[in-house]
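Incident log entry.

Two folding requests arrived from the same account within the same minute. Monitoring flagged them as a possible duplicate submission, but the sequences differ. Recording both here for audit purposes.

Request one:
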Amino acid sequence: MNDRIGITDLKRMFAEAGKQIRQEHESLSRLDSIGGDGDHGTAMLQAFDTLDEAAKAGSGKSLSGWLKDAGWSVLGVGGGASTALLGTFIAGMGDAELGDECGCAQLAASLKAGLEALGRQTKAQPGDKTMMDALAPAVEAFADAAARGKPAATAMEEAAEAACRGAESTKAMIARYGRAKFLGEKTRGSADAGATSMALLFRGFSIGLMQAKEA
């Protein structure tokens, strides 16, 4: 099996992530309504509609170039903090030098670069009931799998599982950021919308990468 990831594979990952978001956008907004504006699902839909357009327009670019352009396009959506953070993460992935294709270790470096870019924009850490509770463990799990020599599809599957566990863990947390932080104990018992959307993102990445490697 060829474990190299090209631009078609990368676009498939984002396309499958978009499918996951579209299937669950109403539940994302319901989760967000508990402590926020209730528009998280709508904002994520707008972000992935923009990513679909970026995929169509991004022919001939390196992986890094496409990620930067895609991230900046999401930053221009104007859907509030959630789209700004997602766009920062995607654009940050492009800070890693990937060329026209990459392997598992390079993709791990790209995900880490995205997380680092996000860390420069928010002080939120795992445990604060935010998207970081799913994103950080997913990036770590992918890096650990890559370091063990796992193929990219397997590493992404492990990352998706870690993101899912992270999102689930937010049910027991009290929100410390955004409007929800003023609700205190009332935020305990439900999953964070941002963390849930990151779990969906990595589920889509995993499905897309698996399909790409089986094609």
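Request two (distinct sequence, not a duplicate):
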Amino acid sequence: MIIARDEVIALLNEFYLNGIYSLKVSSPLLKEIYRFELGNEPRLNAMTTDEYSEKYDSLRLRCEPEVVEEIPRPGEEYRWIFQSSGVVKPENYSGIVRELENEADRDFMRGDKPLYIGFDTNVLANRFPAIMPKVKCGFCLHTGVLDELHSKFIEKKIRRTKAQVLKRHGFKEVFNQPPLKARKFRVGAVEYRKLMRREYTDEIQGNPGDLNIVKDYQSYQKSRNVDVLLVSEDNIFVEIANDHRIKAVHVKQAKDIPKRLNPTWQELTELLYTTAIAYGVIKIGSVLMFGVWRGKTKEDWNSERLKLEFMNGKLAAEMKRSFRILKACGS
């Protein structure tokens, strides 16, 4: 069964309605990644970075290098699944919220300029637009950023020999799909395209490189008589922006993963999506969820689709029924 990211909530609902409240999420080699309890306020138990590092090091000693390459490393890759889903917020998130809300508080009758927000490469790859607070503004994207994202995943694919090795370790069919190091950047390109579909989004044509991008934003700000606010994880990018009289927000990655978390149902849905993308395939209770699979198309990526395989026939039948109802209701 192929579903969209925002339909994962239906899977969680089916678990809940069937009295399955406690669920473990695991990958073929790493085994348990985290577990969660469903309820009015879901609870999540995760590994800290140090705990995850111990499991990863043990795996690294017993597995082929091409297999280990497809397991998120401790540090940024492990944090990515939690932070890019919004379950763990950036270290300075409350300050970011205040700054974005203050900047978006505009009174056009008083002569305030429209606000347009732009993003650098890493914040798109880390799905910041998906977790940022909703503020009234436009967006302005730069093709140089898209080019930088493209350079990280275009023509990077898992070849047949490696796919066969991975298959022996439970990864099934990943032939011709992007490897782990490329997948987050493909996700970043998806975020770019999602923003481009919004009504108040402009696009600047230009070349990659921090200085080129900032200079083009400076020209855009001046020619359109608007205010631009850039969002970046890179101190140098922020410094360049400020030197060119453009305001910039610096996003600081979380340093660690708390052992106990209280995500919303929506954040839990996002977490399962990012976990499936990072690990390729995960097991949730009696369900296999694939973030990559042989034959996954560009449209599957852009529509943020996942593939489900059920080991419980009753749950599979009820899920199919739920999706028929959702589609009939136009959801």
